[in-house]
Amino acid sequence: MKQYLTHARVVLDDQVLEDAAVLVDEGLIRAINPEQVSGATEINLAGQWLMPGMVDLHCDAIEKEAEPRSRVLFPQDFACLNIDRRNAAAGITTPYHAMSFAHAEWGVRNNDTAADLVRAVKRFKANELVDNRIHVRYEITDITAMPYILTLLDEGGVDLLSIMDHTPGQGQFKHLETYVAYMMGNHGSSREAAEQIAEEKRRARETADERVLAVMAKARELGVPTASHDDDDPLRVATMKELGATMSEFPINLDTARAAHEAGLATILGAPNVMRGGSQSGNMRAFEAIAAGVCDCLCADYAPATMLAAVASLVQRDGLALHDAARLVTLGPARAAGLTDRGEIAVGKRADLISVAHPGGQAAVSGTWVAGRQVFAANYPA
């Protein structure tokens, strides 16, 4: 259906067009401010923002849909349905569902369960509202996970691969007590069990290099983009780049983020960090990297709704231009993932679009279009 979205603040890559219009037909953006339009359904956006649909390279919210409480598993088809709806309402038209393979963490991160959930998302594609993709997170201290990940790569079930090292004593968990508290709080482990897992991770780390080489080689062979995770110093960035990584997720300090950016790795930080004004784990504030020009992308991390909230915060609180803030959740991640058909409002690109209202002063998605099909609508009071 041909649609004519009018009277919008159209957010382009490099500017915002006031009181502008976009013509959509056959799933593509056909024109911006066309001189003549016929046979199209007009949708008057009455001054709302019109942005590209957001691209989220890392969000593990699907795990909470599948396991809402520790050791409480819901049917996986039910989880797929609900995370799909959540992303449509959040304006995320291309989500990469981040799924961890960490066998010691009972539940959705158990290798068998995680592999089943990857396949469930792929099965759901025939019914999806948004373009659901898979981001497999390989915990290098889990010796048992590698065969699962290699199989999923061969099946075509992986759209993005990241390498994680959560060995206590470095990275995200600089202290054993931080890791123990995480396992007890997030996975219902006893202190004794958490300390035992930590020790097992330390031992498994000694043999991890060979596994990392094998998994990264397979991803390169298949053309799957790869990322490093929780980089904590420039040396680790250099090592991961040499292995073929093209992205650096959640660098924990500014020096590391700058090293990743200078090495040509797309740097990815958390939208919740931006919205809240700081990191939950005491690492770098995402805005420090944005202000320094070394942040390329924001991701939802664990909360899809924070993507748009982060854009609004950057504009309203931090004074960033709207098009610059929007690029962090649209064109930046699209380019990082090698998606050349989306991420910007430009003629010939996919008509992945969102309209944004401001009920009560809060930015909120009022409409979502995926390849020209409207998949979400909310009628906020004028």
From TrEMBL:
Residues 236-375 form the Amidohydrolase-related domain. It comes from the Bacteria. Gene3D superfamilies: Metal-dependent hydrolases (3.20.20.140), Urease, subunit C, domain 1 (2.30.40.10). Signal peptide: none annotated. It holds the Pfam family Amidohydro_1. This is Alpha-D-ribose 1-methylphosphonate 5-triphosphate diphosphatase.
